[in-house]
Design goal:
The protein has 295 residues and is an alpha/beta fold. 44% of the residues lie in helices and 13% in strands. It has helices at residues 14-25, 38-50, 65-79, 101-122, 148-155, 161-177, 191-211, 238-241, 243-251, 281-290, and strands at residues 5-8, 30-35, 56-59, 82-87, 126-135, 216-220, 260-261, 267-268. α4 links the parallel β4 and β5. Bound molecules: NADP nicotinamide-adenine-dinucleotide phosphate.
Length: 295
């Protein structure tokens, strides 16, 4: 464990921060806390150092190709590669119930297209038998969709990256052209976020098929967690929510590959639209009302 190197994206706060803390606690030798903002990153490092942990820091904006490339070069030169990559950084829609084009582009860039950049630069330096964990959501389960064409295309065995990009672009074009059809989706709130996370789960399966060298790629719903993303509503603390990513990073058998996990560490069938484990906005709305965040 002491010679392992782990990277957690977007880890200056929230679930990413707690995951870094937990990886340090478990004795992973080199844990990179990364943040797009240097000050926020250094503050987080300072807090962890006060507790006796020794994470390393690197500035990383996942939407900035240069930033991703520079970090990958640093990892290669300084450590020869990495063993654990937790793709945690993400954004949610600015307005939970309205879907605008600009906001959808922003969310999908950060939550989906950034992962393709990370794949381009980081996958070549993953060590044999490395582990990649894509932090998705219950918003990313296929049952968030009702459109049967896209359900079939995204769940087919021989799915390719082009299928996922076509799905994301179909959504963005529909928003741009004002042709979004409510019948295609289980629920309309957080729609761009749902699309980005469905794309991420689909990508997990494609990445797993292509990566080789014993490497595993799994995705995960970390639970409904009290963080800035949820305006501090939720049922889990960040410490509780860090348990499942750390389990996938350190404890699950290496043979577990290309799967979708729940925050309680159980595997769920991602490709089953009848499972009905999609995110229910009424639950979020109720919590937002209880905290007087909405009337
Ligand atoms: N909280 C939940 O209930 C919940 C439920 C399901 C899934 N998730 C997923 O869990 C993960 C963590 O979410 P969270 O709740 O911990 O959210 P959070 O507290 O808002 O933290 C998100 C982190 O991502 C970073 N980030 C955003 N854009 C970035 C970029 N371009 N480059 C680098 N870092 C960036 C943020 O940095 P800044 O501080 O600079 O903004 C922050 O550190 C996300 O993937 C989220 O979708 C959360």
């Amino acid at each position: 464990m002491g010679d392992k190197l782990a990277v957690v994206t977007g880890s200056n706060k929230g679930i990413g921060y707690a995951t870094v803390r937990q990886l340090c606690k478990r004795g992973v030798g080199y844990v990179y806390l990364t943040a797009r903002d240097i000050k926020r990153g250094e503050k987080a490092i300072e807090n962890l150092k006060k507790e006796g942990f020794k994470p390393l820091f690197y500035q990383l904006d996942v939407t900035d190709r240069n930033s991703v490339r520079t970090f990958a070069e640093h990892l290669k030169q300084t450590h020869g590669g990495l063993d654990i990559l937790i793709n945690n950084a993400a954004l949610i829609t600015s307005n939970f119930t309205e879907t605008t084009y600009e906001d959808s582009v922003r969310v999908i860039d950060a939550n989906y297209f950034s992962i393709l950049t990370i794949q381009e630069y980081m996958f070549p330096i993953l060590k044999d038998n490395a582990r990649v964990i894509n932090i998705s959501s219950d918003c990313g389960h296929i049952s968030n969709l009702k459109n049967t064409y896209w359900i079939n295309r995204l769940t087919k065995q021989d799915i390719k990256l082009d299928d996922i990009n076509a799905f994301v672009n179909w959504f963005l074009d529909s928003v741009k052209n004002g042709t979004l059809n409510e019948e295609d989706f289980q629920e309309m709130p957080l729609l761009a976020y749902r699309i980005s996370k469905i794309a991420l789960c689909s990508l997990t399966r494609v990445q797993q098929k292509e990566v080789g060298r014993g490497i595993s790629v799994n995705s995960l719903h970390p639970g409904y967690v009290k963080t800035d993303m949820t305006k501090t509503t939720g049922f889990l603390t960040i410490e509780e929510a860090s348990e499942a990513p750390v389990y996938l990073a350190l404890d699950v058998d290496q043979s577990v590959k290309g799967k979708y996990f729940w925050f309680d560490k159980t595997e769920k069938e991602w490709a089953d639209p009848n499972l009905k484990i999609h995110s229910t906005y009424a639950v979020v709305e109720k919590c937002l009302r209880e905290l007087n965040i909405i009337q």
